[in-house]
Design goal:
Shape of chain A: globular
Strand order of the largest sheet of chain B: 7-6-8-9-10-13-14
CATH architecture of chain A: Orthogonal Bundle
Number of helices of chain B: 13
CATH topology of chain A: ABC transporter involved in vitamin B12 uptake, BtuC
Largest sheet of chain A: 2 strands, antiparallel
Strand content of chain A: under 5%
CATH class of the largest domain in chain B: Alpha Beta
Strand content of chain B: 15-25%
Order of helices and strands of chain A: HHHHEEEHHHHEHHH
Distance between the termini of chain B: 65 Å
Oligomer: heterodimer
Number of strands of chain B: 14
Structural class of chain B: alpha/beta
Order of helices and strands of chain B: HEHEHEHEHEHEHEHEHEHEHHHEEEE
Structural class of chain A: mainly alpha
CATH superfamily of the largest domain in chain B: Response regulator
Strand order of the largest sheet of chain A: 1-4
Number of domains of chain A: 1
Radius of gyration of chain A: 20 Å
Helix content of chain A: over 70%
Largest sheet of chain B: 7 strands, mixed
């Protein structure tokens, strides 16, 4: 029983991170009908920005509330800028071109970032995995059983991660459904040509969407780095692919779907590794994707839209 | 969605193929870990007045520090010999290729060294999975290959052109099982193995067999896959069984994180490992989570022998850090290869092979090297204890 609770805690911890990254995929797909495959690599860049900031702050400032906030702000702000640049210079010129062109470009950007960061020139970190500094000093919030040898441990960073993730998601939900900008976003997502005719600045809406998605990815990446302590230039490819699967499970383009998909995937993976073998993890994750799509081709929350011919 | 599906599938396929990259001859790259850049001796075309050796190591990817240490050791050996006038009146050069810690890249790199660069001997790699991939190519081409540090027995079983200058896993697993039972008095142990690596699986087999033979109880063998970053699920399962020690025969990049997460879950028993732990990076990744843990290794910098101390001093002067076992073994592998080239009659593959096979009582810095009929080195192992970001020598175990 205690093992089950521990697995639940761990699964929710990794699931919320997948959910946050999946949100970026889903938002961009919503407004552009583009799978931004560079999204995971933007997350990786954000993690390295946080890493650099943490080292710049020095050991004492890292664990403080202000220090952690600053690390998050730098990484999220930096990634927002990166997301803006990628959209402006790589995707916008291709907007009226066939969809495949933009997709290939996205994969190109992804490789540029993940392999570029393996170089050892200037500020680039090189390919060796590094340990992310402990910006949140770990302490046990809650234990079950013998305190010396606890059966279940709930860590402060798990609670903080969950709170940060939920706060970011609630903020996003508010933005999309309760603000003028959100309304513009939904309008662009519905039909960007008509939205432009109605006086909505579609270019600006799409830019801001990219910035928000990238900032969320950076936040998620930092939570991931706090959880798993190891960062490397190729982490974005793997985590990004998983989050993409989560977004598709939930129904790509659907905000609550991304959250549910991420949580489900995190839990499924944790239970596979805990009760079966870690080698099955990816097979089961993708198997789960196929299963969901067989039953609901549009994902759990998605609606199957008829293609306009 | 219907029109998008094939596109998505294609994208995912492309994505999975993300890791296809051509290996290039390394030029002087700054070593990870912030060491000063060292001019690699590779990249020169073979000319009539140089003897060209080939080297395939992991300079990038998960086991990057292994490759960098090995390369530094090899370069040190070559520079020493060249400074003393070279071999047979010719200077030595080495062409270094990076396999990015991947077996398929290692095989490609070995093929390139054999067919394009026409090297005399191939040195490499450290990870057994990579060496296994290279060994096929070297054996088929009749070019001798010396692996400095691959400990899986299958590597030299690939054929009579494949050698190693380190001990093999059956011995290493045996050493740790014995140490755990007799020294640490461990009754109940669990194993966490990397099931993507030939090295880790081999060690797990030997350790579990010996540990049970010596009267210990093996509670469970859990596994992870190289490159995982979350081991909490396996560690939670292990914790429930209340072991007194955990054997983690993996590579430093995974072990550091495993240790951290184990401590976090309240699993505070010592961990035991093997030479794959040996990297400066281990302490950076693990913090102090591995304090009080033990691992078996090829050599200890605390060895007072003059030749070992001289090697350490030279290495420090050249690279600014204390050499790890991989650097020592890289140095030894290069020295054995050079001695064989010196002895060979006509520099053909078979003649160099025969010269290597006769290596006996060779004074290496990681122990004295005598190659047995299976082309493996018979030598002793040391047990090191981890503490305060460094290792201390505990004991030597002879075969």
């Amino acid at each position: 029983m205690s093992q089950l609770i521990q697995h639940l805690i761990n699964g929710i911890a990794s699931g919320t991170i997948y959910a946050l990254i999946a949100l970026g995929y889903t938002m961009v797909y919503g407004v552009l009908k583009l799978i931004n495959f560079a999204h995971g690599d933007v997350m990786m860049v954000g993690v390295y920005m946080g890493y650099a900031t943490a080292f710049a702050l020095g050991r004492e400032a890292r664990g403080s509330v202000g220090g952690v906030l600053l690390i998050f702000l730098v990484a999220m702000g930096g990634c927002a800028l990166l997301g803006f640049l990628i959209e402006r210079f790589a995707y916008r010129p291709l907007r009226e071109k066939p969809r495949l062109t933009a997709l290939i470009t996205a994969i190109g950007i992804s490789f540029t970032l993940s392999y570029g960061f393996q170089l050892d020139i200037g500020f680039l970190p090189g390919s060796a995995p590094r340990a992310f500094p402990q910006i949140i000093k770990p302490s046990q919030w809650f234990t079950l059983g013998d305190p010396e040898f606890p059966d279940v441990v709930l860590w402060n960073w798990q609670v903080i991660s969950l709170m940060v993730a939920v706060a970011l998601m609630m903020g996003l939900q508010y933005l999309v459904f309760r603000t003028r900008f959100g309304r513009a976003m939904r309008a662009v997502s519905f039909d960007h040509r008509v939205a432009a005719l109605m006086g909505i600045p579609t270019d600006r809406v799409i830019s801001v969407t990219f910035m928000i998605g990238s900032a969320l990815a950076a936040g998620a990446g930092l939570l991931y780095a706090i959880k798993d302590t190891s960062v490397s230039p190729l982490m974005g490819l793997y985590v990004g692919l998983k989050a993409f699967v989560a977004a598709v499970i939930g129904g790509i383009g659907n905000v609550p779907g991304a959250m549910v998909g991420g949580l489900l995937l995190g839990l499924v993976e944790e239970f596979v590794v805990g009760y079966a073998a870690s080698t099955w993890r990816d097979a089961v994750a993708f198997g789960f994707l196929i299963l969901v799509l067989l039953v609901r081709p549009g994902g759990l929350f998605g609606r199957v839209a008829a293609e306009k011919v | 969605m219907r029109r998008l599906t094939p596109v998505l599938l294609a994208a995912i396929a492309l994505f999975s193929a993300a890791c296809e990259k051509k290996s290039q001859p390394t030029t002087s790259a700054e070593a990870p870990g912030g060491q000063a850049a060292q001019p690699a001796t590779g990249g020169k075309p073979p000319s009539s007045d140089t003897l060209l050796l080939g080297e395939v190591v992991s300079l990038t990817g998960a086991q990057a520090t292994f490759g960098v240490s090995t390369r530094n050791g090899v370069d040190l050996a070559l520079n020493e010999v060249n400074a003393a006038g070279g071999v047979k009146g010719k200077k030595l050069a080495v062409r270094v290729l990076d396999d990015q810690s991947k077996p398929e890249e290692a095989a490609q790199a070995a093929t390139r060294l054999i067919t394009q660069d026409k090297v005399l001997v191939i040195l490499g790699d450290v990870a057994s999975s990579n060496s296994l991939a290279m060994a096929d190519k070297a054996q088929a081409a009749g070019i001798p290959m010396i692996t400095p540090a691959s400990t899986n027995p299958a590597v030299t079983e690939k054929g009579d052109f494949i050698f190693r200058v380190c001990f093999i896993d059956p011995f290493q697993g045996f050493v740790m099982a014995k140490f755990a039972r007799e020294h640490l008095k461990v009754e109940r142990a669990a194993i966490l193995q990397d099931n993507k690596s030939a090295y880790s699986i081999g060690l797990t087999e030997v350790f579990s067999q010996k540990f049970k033979e010596l009267g210990g109880t093996l509670l469970a063998t859990e596994s992870y896959s190289q490159g995982d970053t979350d081991f909490r699920a396996q560690l939670t399962s292990i914790k429930k069984l209340k072991p007194q020690a955990i054997y983690v025969p993996g590579y430093y990049n995974d072990v550091g994180i495993i240790a951290r997460q184990a401590r976090e879950l309240g699993l505070t028993v010592p961990m035991m490992g093997a030479d794959g732990w040996d990297s400066e990076k281990l302490f950076e990744l693990a913090g102090n989570a591995l304090d009080g843990s033990y691992f078996s290794n090829h050599y200890s910098p605390a060895n007072p022998e003059p030749r070992v101390q001289k090697f350490i001093a030279d290495y420090k002067a050249a690279y600014g850090s204390v050499p790890d076992a991989l650097a020592a073994l890289g140095y030894d592998a290069a020295r054995v290869a050079i001695a064989a080239i010196e002895k060979s009659k006509d520099l053909s593959g078979p003649s160099i092979r025969d010269a290597i096979a006769q290596t006996k009582d060779f004074p290496g810095v990681a122990g004295t090297i005598t190659l047995d009929e299976k082309r493996n080195a018979v030598k002793s192992a040391v047990i090191l204890k981890v503490g305060n970001g460094t290792t201390e020598f505990v004991t030597t175990v002879h075969p």
